Structures are given as structure tokens and as C-alpha cells.
Dipeptidase (Streptomyces ziwulingensis), 376 residues
Amino acid sequence: MADLQDDLHTSTEAGELDDLPVPLDAEAFPPEPYTPVSDPDAAPLERAHAVLAAHPVADGYSGLPWALKHLPWYDLELGESGVDTDIPRLREGHVGALFASLHLPEGIDGDRAVGATMDQLDLLKTIVRGCPEGLRLVLDAGEATDARNCGRVAVLPGPAGAAALGDSLGILRSLYALGVRVLSLTGAAWASGAGLTRFGEEVVREMNRLGMIADLSGASAETFRRTFAVSKAPVLCTRSAARSLRPHPANLPDDLLVELGEAGGLCMVPLTAEQTGPTVRDVADHLDHVRDLAGPQSVGLAGTYDAGTAHPLELSDASCYPRLIAELLRRHWHEADVALLTWGNVQRVLRESAFTARAARVRRQPSTANIADLDG
């Protein structure tokens, strides 16, 4: 926990952003034209490795911190059979970045949830420090690209659960200063089945001002739509597939997939048998469906490894991404769409969130609202 206190005193990134120029909008930074990187006559798996070497996977959800918490000893650099994720398998799977979940088991709430989230974040930083040749803690799109270019896997802290806030915007700002970049809008009184309360809307506005991204996986349709209306930044669904293909509470109905695409959000399809099905073809079906409804700019990947869930055949651990990409190439996905799926869409969401924060800080001071005044 001492590391967290040090970060509070030494982090200056949030303040430094205030001095940066405010971009007019994200369209001022159009993507560069895509150049094919593989031989169109090569076998799909060979092409998949070539594409991923240039456009690695940004994995939207990893349960590694919680999984390692329960191991008495581990070695991620050499390989660790006790988990689904280690440095050799990340490299074999061409994983360039991952979001490290700070979610907690059910039943932990209130002050215990705040403290447990801090412990999780402290553990994550200890894990990264213990793998200096393989992992690097990053906080934005530019740092993620730098880490990839240096041969490291970029690790972004989050998503954290809404209970980690303790209904305090001050704690939200502290979590951001400590590195948390994604917050799930579920499991709190202000983000329930009935949607966002007035305090919940203020949480979203403050997240926009900071540059913290909202995760809507598992949220109600009312919370989705109210967040779309309030948020000026794109949102993530870190673990959501297509409900029309496989019923699951965290999967999205077709109408919400369309609205998510229109709002510039990102649906990160999980590689779990429960949500997507037992085979790699089932996962590809979900990716096809989400791309068709939300658009190629709004679909991503969430390995959901080390989160206590079973995985489809041929996708048992973090080394298996080339098999999935090969299946998409067999289905005639364009390389440009694969590059968006694996890396480009996450980079876009991170950059647009940062742009929104810079503009919001010009207009808005840190909020002093509290839940008693707004929802009492």
C-alpha cells in the first residue's frame, strides 16, 4: 500500500494535461490508410501471425491480479502453469496490451470495497514491477504504444467496480490519480436496474473530466441509454457478446449494439464458453454479428482469462489469439477490420477519452457534489 501513497504524491499527469491544447474534435486526427501486412496467398494462420505482429491484441479484460493473489508463488517471466496468462503465452498470442481487472467478489462493499480495490491495485503494480522485461504499467494510448514498441505488454489498471468509489467523487479522483482508467457502472445504488440517478450522472461527468472510461458490461438498458446521453466520451463494454446468439445477462441485445455503435462505443467480445459458446467458430459468429450491427470501429476482444470462467475449444489461454484471427480471415475479414478489432479500436477509445478530458477541464472544476444532496 505504500506504493499507492507514493503515487498520490508523485503523479503529475492529471495536472499536466490541463496545460495541453484542446483538440477541436477526434475527426481532426483521422486514421492513417491501412497497408496490408500479410501475403494474401498464405495460409490463414500464417497470415494471422503476420497481422498480429503489426497490430497486436489489446485484451479488454484480464483477471490475472485476483488469480495471482491466491497463488503462494509464481513466475510470469518464465511461465506459470497455475494461471492462463504469463509472459511467454502473451508473446505467443501477440498480446500488446491488457486491461487488468480490479473487480472484487460479490459481497464486498462499502469501506471494505474501497480498501480491497486499493489492495488489488497495489498487487497489480507489484506484479508489473516483478516482470520488468515483459510488462509495463501504462495510463494512456501513447504509453501503450511505447510499451509495445519496446517489446513489453502494456498493462492498464481497470475496470474497477463501482463499489470502489464508496459513493465519493473524491475517491474517484484518487483512484484516477493512482492509475485506474476504467470503472464499471454496475453494483451501486446510483447505477442500478432503474438507470443512473442524479449522482450517477455526476459520476459520469466527473469521469469525463478526468479521462476515466465507463464500462457498461452488465449494466441495465436504462443505465446504457442514460450514460450515452450524459457522457461526452466513448464507453466500453469490457465483457459483452451478442444476446441474440447466446442469452446471457452481460450480452447485449441487437438494439443496444446499434446504439453503442452510433455512440462510438466499443463492445469487447469475451472468449468464454458461457457467453460466446464452446468453439472458436462460435466466438467468430459473435464478432461477425457485433461488427455487422455496431460497425467495425466498435468491436474488440476480451480474453477474460484468469477470471474463473471456461474458454472455448482452441482458445484455452492467452497464446491462442492467432487461431481466432485465422478463423476471421477464413471468413474474409479485411485485414484493416482485424487491425481495428485487435488494436486500433482500443487506441481510439483511449485517445478520445483523453481529448474529452482536456476539453472538459477547461469548462469544469472538480465536482463537490455528494450523493446525499443529489439523491437524498
Observations:
- The two ends are 34 Å apart (CA to CA).
- DSSP finds 16 helices and eleven strands in the chain.
